[in-house]
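User: Second chain of the day. Same drill as before.
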Amino acid sequence: MADIREVVSGIGKDAKRTDLNVSQQPLQYIPDLPQGEGQVTYNNQRLAPMYAAPEPDVVSITAPTQNKNQPVMAGIDMGAGPGSEILPPMPVKPTVSLVDTFKLLSDLDPSGDSELVYRQLVDEGY
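Assistant: Same format as last time:
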């Protein structure tokens, strides 16, 4: 698969054209539309092409390794290779309780549902 690099426009003197980016959906004629609308739709696609995200490279689970020099045990705290310190950090446990969250939401919720849940939690001793 080709490596697609999109142009991102800057501001003012750094501005670049973005209408020439290569990642665009192909034009498609849509049949069975009412009289004339198919051609109008096709012409609109030409005037304002739609972005097509590049397809990601997917590696099959049965494919040979792409990391030949990396030990099999890399990422765990035993065996050869780096331990769990190479992994991204785990999410931090929230410091706000569920009751406090519903209390905050009750001020923003015009339906009043959040306040009802908050009051029920308080009544039940949470």
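The mean pLDDT is 83.

User: Great, on to the next one.
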